Every structure is written in C-alpha cells, then in structure tokens.
Amino acid sequence: MRKKISKSIFASRYAWFFSLSVFLISPGIQAKFEYLPDEQFQSLLKEYKKDPTYLAKNSELMTQLSPEQLSSAIAEMGFSHFTYLYPVELRGEELGDLLGESLEQLSVVTIRDGKVIPIPFQFDEYDTKGWVYLEGEGKIDGTLGILDKNDQLVFMYRDTGEHLSTAGETGLDIVKEVELERDGNKRYIYIVKGSSQRSEVSYVTYDFETSAAKTTFYGFDTDTKNFLNFEDFYPLIGPMAGARVLDSVFAEIDTGVLTRFAPRVNLNTFEDIKAVPVGAVSGPVKTNVIIKLTVVVAKVPVFKIRAQMNIFDQMLGFKARINIPGADILTRFLVEPHIYIALDFNEQTGARFNSAISPDVNAWGIVDGKLSDFEKNLDIDRERSWLWLSSPYGWDVFARINIPETFPVGVKLLYVDDPNDEMKFENFPGAYPRAGFDVYELPKDFQEIDLDVQFFFPDQLGMGAGEFKEKETENLPKVSVRNI
Predict the structure, then answer these.
(1) 186: exposed, middle or buried (Cβ count in 10 Å: 0-12, 13-18, 19+)
(2) What's the whole-number mean pLDDT along residues 337-363?
C-alpha cells in the first residue's frame, strides 16, 4: 500500500524554508547569505579533484556553496556546465565481446590522482518494446542479468578521469577502456570484471512508497496517486536552497470536437489524466519510474498511455507513448487540438528567459509580470525546440522536446508572464512564469504518438542559452571502446 509522507517529517524543513524566504526576498540577497569560506572551499576543491563522488558523500556542503563557487569548481575540474551534468549511456553492442557476461561481474572505475576509484554506474536492461525492463510489465529483450546488445551502461561524464598507464599495477581484471574525447580533451573510465569494489554513492534516490525523489542538486515530492501532480520541487543550490520553485509540471489536452463552434474538451493531469507509477527501476545514477496514464472522461477511462520518467542528478526525462485504438477515426473529429506540456514556476520574478526562435538567442527577456517586445517574438518549432530560464537564485532550467520525424505535428512555445493569469489547481496563483510546449496540428491518421521531453537543471550558466545549446548540448563526447 502506497502512503504519503508524514507532515511531521518535513515540518522542521518547511519551518526553516519559511524563515529563509522571509529573509531572502530579492536577488540582491545573495551577498548576505553565508557561503563556504574560501579556505574551506579550496579544501573541498582539493578533495573533489581526488574523488569525483566527494560532494555527493558530503551533500550538506552543496547548500553552502555559492553559485560562483560551484561554477568555479566545475571549471577547475576541467568540466563545462553541460559535461558536468551529462550522463553517458552506452549500449551493450558497443561493448563488443563483453556481450553475454554476467552483469553482476562487471563494474566501473576511474583514475584520479593516480589512484583507482570505483564510481557510480548501472546497467539498465530493456524490454522488447524499448522500455526499461520491469518484471511483470513486459517481455525482456535478451536474458535477465546478462549483458545483451540493447542493455545500457550508464555513468556520469564528470566521474571520468585520467588515462591508466599500466593495467597490471591495479591488481584488477580491467577488460575495457572507454575513452571520451571532447574539444581535444580525453577522459577515461575502465570496465572491470570480477571485482568486489563498488562505489556506495547514489546520485539519485527515489522512494516508490512516498513518491519522493532527491538528487545532489534537487528534490521533489509528488502525489502518490498521480505522479505528475508535484507537491514540492526544490533546488539544493543557491540562496533559496530548499524553497519550492515549481508549482507544477503539467500536461493538458485541449480540443474542439466536430466543429470549432462546439464547446471545447479539456483534459488535464490534475483531474483527467492520472499518472500512476507501477514500479521503479533504480540505480545510483538514474531512476526509471514506469508510469501508466489513464485518460478519464466523465469518470470513464477512454485510453491509456505508457510513460517513463528518468530521474538523473541534474536532469528529468519524460518519455510517453500514446496508443489510441481507433485514433485514425477519432482524430477526424478533433478540431484545433493542442497538447500542452509545461512548467508552472513559483515566483521567479527577475529570472531571465529565452527560446530557440528569438531576436537574439544569447540575450533574454525578464520575468516581470508583462511581455516585452523581445518576449512577444519568442517561439519554437520542430527543429528548434529549446527554452531556457535562468533563476535569480543560482540555477537554470534548459528544456527541449523531441518529436520523431515520422509524426508530423506542429509545436510552438507556451509562455505566460502574468501574475494575474491563474490556472485551476494552482497552489501559487499566477504565472511567474509558465513555460513549455504547445503541440498542435495532429495528423488525421495517427495511431501512436511518441513524445520525449527533457529538462536539464544546470548550475547558473553565465552564458547565453544559444551558446549553451550550440557549444554544449550539441557537442557530445566522441566515445571509443577498446580492449585492455
């Protein structure tokens, strides 16, 4: 039986949040906040360079770092804003002759300061329909517990390290070297066979019973009866660490039927689209929450959706496959349908905002309760589909939607900056702002929709979003796997 988190567990945390929010009332408060003294920061940096999991092991230090200190630490360690948060995913077929090996026998290490360091990793196994395998929810693709070609090794780019000069000196049976090259810089991890050494660090924890998640950088709680109904979402960096920054992550289907003059039908994730987690496949780098969504009209289930939420240290990925029996007939009666997927932020006045179609992709509009000429000219489309918000409190959100070429729909920007624009079921009325994706012009003969939305939560970039997109998210490391 799933149960809600006891309010008493979080009472002290919310009391502290309230006290903090009264004290921290504007972006200018950052200078007043007590951050880690420079001497302690230099000591942290020294340890962090030796052990890539040091900050996760000492998570209390995260809230003591200023945005500038975190950015400095990332640069000092040789990473960019994107490579620091980037999870590397390698399919089993890329690992060559390791196919057929027992997953229990394989582990991952890196080299830091000349020493072998076990790092967090996981192997995800998949079912025949392309979802992460959950027992009882599909047929496994391959053999359980054995490395198959579609299985996936996952680790963090920031955990990579130095080149290993001599494998024999480690005393380990190192069977593969994975080299990652980016902008002329090479970093490495090593796959080991038969070693008992394992990192005990988890970058992501998720409690299926309470529907609460926490990473090194953020945390959230959702309604145990509806996974998409967020009850809290808080960063763990910056002067507002711990304070709720998202009112909700919501989806909505809005359409006319038969004629544009008929009343429109509106289905939303608060009332009509119930996202029920059926299980979670968890690892130290990533948690995969398997979700079934049922669309209810007049209390009658109409159709079901299979989805998966992938929770990373600084990223949320939401993949959904909507299969509607008879959709090729149903859609002929839909008039001007829209599928909205958006973030409803909580009080981000002073934040900067931009999107892929913009007067200047490296400039921004300001969240101030009204739309400037700059903001009025913002948009996205199928090929240019990112949006970006930079909070005044030390963190950013970079989001994008991926729509398969085989599904010819339109997509445009949803952006509202208006404190008087209230939405039903909001905990914090008004759009401060509300931003996301409007999928429209559905084809008349589809039977299945695949949607893939990604939300990145980097530290504060200190650069334009267009530059981040071009030089960071589009500049993935080149991976080479070789035998040792």
Answers:
(1) middle
(2) 92
